Amino acid sequence: MFRAAINSDSLIPRKNPNVKTKVAERSIDLVFHQKGGTPELSVLVSVEHKTIMTAHGKARKNRYGDLIAYCNHMHNHRKDCVAAGIVVINTSGEYANPNGFAKGLKRPHFNMEKVVADTIGIFSAIPLRNKPGDPNDQPEALAIIVVNYDGLNPASLVTRAPAPTAGNRAHYDNFLRRICDLFSTRFSGR
Prior knowledge:
This protein is an alpha/beta fold. The protein has one domain.
């Protein structure tokens, strides 16, 4: 049904639009909104992307908070919106941050295997929202993508542990399936 809605132009994809609520406006990475004549978007599905490249301790707390704020915003925009999130987690302990402030920065060495596993565990445990009446601060779907990226060479996708595998709800295929299923359940009468 999701693909059919896009193919029929009744559901329009849009990158980085500003999405409004009664009190705030926020740029969202990807939305699928209803086709219509009003200047305000009516978003049915949204996807926000977050990355944790280094400093997992601080970054994971900040990205967790970002996801909660994003979900609240989208569910205040529209209670039945399917708000999904993608979290990319880097496994490289050698990541060289390209930002000027981090040039030559010496980082303490950590047991990256444990740090990454803990970070994946935190995001995997986020409760998923099943119905529009569930708490606003929860996503409907969440994918965790694990990469190995040193900041200098091309990144590689990590497909084995600690990355979520096919049976895990945070696996990308399950993420897509959940979005499509919830879209069909919530908007099949349109």
